[in-house]
Specification:
By secondary structure, this protein is α+β, with helices and mostly antiparallel strands. Helices cover about 55% and strands about 5% of the residues. β4 and β5 form a beta hairpin. α2 runs antiparallel to α3 and α3 packs parallel to α5. The two termini are about 45 Å apart.
Length: about 450
């Protein structure tokens, strides 16, 4: 059955439904092949009308060809988006070829097509259907542009020199999710709607987990990580569904998947999300290491095996540094000032007593285990955490302080607004110890996921 002998509803369901399914499953090349072939047919209908074809039929074919051309551009833009090739800085006196400019061009053409369909007020007519689909795709493109802005702002947050304002990013992303919750809802766009929701909601839950980790909230961060994991699995399942469809040979030899075993570049953004979740799981396991190792009745060797499977086993990094150096203690200090009393790990219905004074600065992890830090060190630690100048400097680099009273040197660096990494020496350290500085930078920037986030920074061609 050719496209000119089917109704517009059947045409949309058969062709556009297949197109948007491929688009949602990271098969942008195949999606473009679908609309390019159909665009050729529609253009031929306009150039060589049949004797039974009316002027209205020719106009409908022309509008279809226009929409198909726009969808072909959208497929290319979506491939760029998911390949993470869109973070390219515009050069001096160079034409802007960014993804944003591509989406803006698509918006302009969709607005023209939508405006041309306004003359048909009758529902069910070809012009009305094309106008409605154009409006839905327009909403989708606007949502995409919002996510491009979000990723670019996140990439420019510079986690290697400052603390990322995760609460603000959480608010911004929640606004995007809420705004687009009821948009581009047409059944033909169901697959891309699901993919967009899975992507944004997975990111939303991951940022929620990050915010909860900043406040040392065990249960809240665990639940957010679990939700993010579920959304990422659902998002990835769309790709698997398209893989099976392409392998069935229903859309030609061009759909054959590479047998190299490598993840296609158009799934780079999905890989980035997966890596970001893995970094959060590693951080969660480090912050709550003592709680996790005390649960489940696992043998200590079994727990070491489980932690070794993480993207980064921070606890073993600390252990390795301790073995190589002469620092008696490495610890994470938490500033609980102004926090509700139910931070950390606790039974949901059991609230601890309120803390104040030095007890407002607990150590959430001390290495080596079984060797508690001498209480006399805590006034010095609290003094450093409360010093606004040193705390500001510690957001960017390790800071060293020698306490003559304790005859001890303290290196510290902020990981989160309320969590600080300390390395203590019971002697005077002269200058900046390169081994200590390297260790602390590696730990802190890893916990901040700096390398992942900076990949979102615009880069030159």
């Amino acid at each position: 059955m050719t496209s000119e002998t089917v109704s517009d509803a059947e045409w949309g369901e058969m062709l556009l439904g297949q197109y948007f399914k491929m688009l949602s499953g990271f098969a942008q090349d195949q999606a473009k092949d679908i609309v390019d072939r159909e665009k050729t047919i529609q253009s031929q209908n306009v150039a060589n009308p049949q004797h039974h074809q009316s002027a209205l039929d020719s106009a409908n074919s022309s509008a279809r060809a226009t929409l198909l051309g726009i969808l072909g551009q959208l497929a290319l833009a979506e491939k760029t988006y998911h390949s993470m090739c869109f973070f390219v800085a515009k050069g001096f006196l160079r034409k802007d070829s960014s993804l944003r400019s591509s989406y803006e061009g698509i918006v302009s053409e969709l607005l023209v097509l939508k405006e041309g369909a306004k003359g048909s007020a009758n529902r069910g007519t070809p012009a009305h259907l094309l106008g409605h689909i154009s409006e839905q795709v327009l909403q989708y493109v606007f949502a995409r542009m919002e996510m491009v802005n979000f990723y670019e702002h996140l990439g420019s947050s510079r986690p290697d020199t400052q603390l990322v304002p995760w609460s603000q990013f959480l608010e911004d992303l929640r606004t995007i999710c809420d705004k687009n919750h009821r948009l581009f809802h047409h059944p033909m766009l169901a697959h891309v709607k699901s993919a967009f929701d899975f992507e944004t909601e997975a990111m939303l839950h991951m940022i929620e987990a990050q915010v909860h980790l900043e406040d040392y909230q065990f249960l809240a961060s665990l639940l957010s990580l679990n939700e993010a994991h579920a959304k990422l699995n659902s998002w990835e399942s769309l790709a698997h569904a398209c893989d099976e469809f392409r392998n069935s040979g229903k859309i030609g030899l061009s759909a054959v998947i590479s047998l190299s075993g490598r993840t296609p570049p158009e799934r780079a953004l999905l890989r980035w999300h997966t890596a970001f979740k893995a970094s959060l799981v590693s951080k969660f396991s480090f912050y709550f290491y003592e709680n996790l190792t005390a649960q489940g009745g696992y043998h200590v060797d079994r727990m070491k095996t489980l932690f070794a499977r993480l993207s980064c086993d921070y606890y073993q990094k600390v252990a390795a540094f301790h073995r190589r150096g002469d620092a008696p203690w490495i610890l994470l200090a938490f500033d609980a000032g102004g926090m509700p009393v139910h931070y950390g790990y606790r039974f949901p219905l059991r609230y601890p007593v309120s803390v104040q004074g030095l007890e407002s600065f607990p150590a959430i992890l001390i290495y080596p285990p079984g060797m508690p830090l001498a209480p006399a060190h805590w006034p010095s630690i609290v003094m450093l955490l409360s010093d606004p100048v040193k705390s500001a400097e510690a957001k960017e680099r390790p800071v060293m302080f020698y306490d003559e009273r304790m005859e001890s040197s303290y290196y510290f660096m902020r990981v989160e607004p309320k969590i600080t990494l300390f390395v203590l020496f019971q002697r005077r350290k002269i200058g900046r110890d390169s081994a200590v500085v390297t260790f602390m930078n590696d730990m802190v920037f890893g916990l901040r996921a700096s390398k992942l986030i900076v990949t979102l920074c615009p880069r030159s061609k």
